[in-house]
Design goal:
heterodimer; A: 6-stranded mixed beta sheet; 12 strands; globular; B: mainly beta; 7-stranded mixed beta sheet; 4-stranded antiparallel beta sheet; 0% helix
């Protein structure tokens, strides 16, 4: 079965530190890739997405992610985190062949940024 | 209103109660979803509706019963739930086209089953 794996369950950083959250998926075909963020007490919102084209995708709030097809990875990065980036981050995948729009989520990574 | 709205935001119910969760999307999308979010677990897809037709039931127990009367509204009817069903229930919508699927989420209903 297709799955999404996020390696880091809980990450603690100081402000201005660089961030990289890992995401790997298991599916050999065409995929669409997403990172969602859930700030404390708020609903899930889209950070960035990859459908095709340039594998380096830029999203909101200074986040970016790189799709590396050979590694089945879509890691999220930010060069300098802020306290306001404290949140839970979810990687998700839809299969390119899917006509139902089914999203497969990873288990999430909790990021805590210390001021 | 814009986006995806869910009511109620919080719900406490006993195991013998019957209640319903409501979701409404104001985005003109053609697909709607129910997810369950439990602590320390990935979001679990429960149901998918495309053009009001259920296209996926992810082995969800029959005590959860979805209803999609039109493409803007989605309900989740609950009856004889168990304490382990306590979770955040999220609704989402999307415009499904050629596999592209950016889903927009509602704020969720925090359900507690006593």
């Amino acid at each position: 079965a297709q799955s999404v794996s996020q390696h880091n369950h809980h990450v603690i950083l100081s402000e201005a530190a660089s961030l990289e959250l890992g995401c790997n998926y298991s599916y050999g075909g065409t995929v669409n890739l997403f990172w969602y963020v859930q700030y404390p007490g708020q609903h899930l919102q889209l950070l960035l997405k990859y459908f095709s084209g340039d594998p380096l995708v830029k999203g909101i709030k200074g986040f970016e992610a790189e799709f590396i097809k050979s590694k089945f990875s879509f890691n999220l990065r930010k060069p300098s985190v802020q306290w306001s980036d404290t949140a839970e981050y979810f990687c998700a995948v839809t299969l390119g062949s899917s006509n139902t729009g089914k999203l497969i989520f990873g288990q999430g990574t909790t990021l805590q940024v210390k001021p | 209103e814009t986006g995806v709205t869910q009511t109620p935001r919080h719900l406490v119910m006993g195991m013998t109660n019957k209640k319903s969760l409501k979701c409404e999307q104001h985005l003109g999308h053609n697909a709607m979803y129910w997810y369950k979010q439990s602590a320390k677990k990935p979001l679990e897809l429960m149901f998918v509706y495309n053009f009001k037709e259920q296209t996926e039931n992810n082995s969800v127990p029959s005590r959860f019963s979805p209803e999609c009367p039109n493409s803007s509204h989605l309900f989740l009817h609950l009856h004889t739930l168990q304490p382990e069903d306590s979770a955040l229930y999220l609704c989402a919508s999307s415009q499904v086209a050629s596999g592209h699927n950016e889903q927009f989420f509602g704020p969720g209903t925090r359900l507690t089953v006593l």
